[in-house]
Amino acid sequence: MVSSDRKAAxxxxxxxxxxxxxxxxxxxxxxxxxxxxxxxxxxxGVDELPGPGRNLVVTFSAKF
Length: 64
What we know:
Elements: E1 16-22, E2 28-35, E3 55-62
Antiparallel strand pairs: 1-2, 2-3
């Protein structure tokens, strides 16, 4: 008997990120993340909910 435990192929997503540190002693950091630019449906390995479609995340942090 032959058993096959193949997982369904997940579509490829295209993600990009850019960020920079600035200010005195590089205390500040800003970044822009562009996620799932191809707007493909996907799920994380253990999640039951689908991942978000095309989206962007902007972050800013500061060291004190």
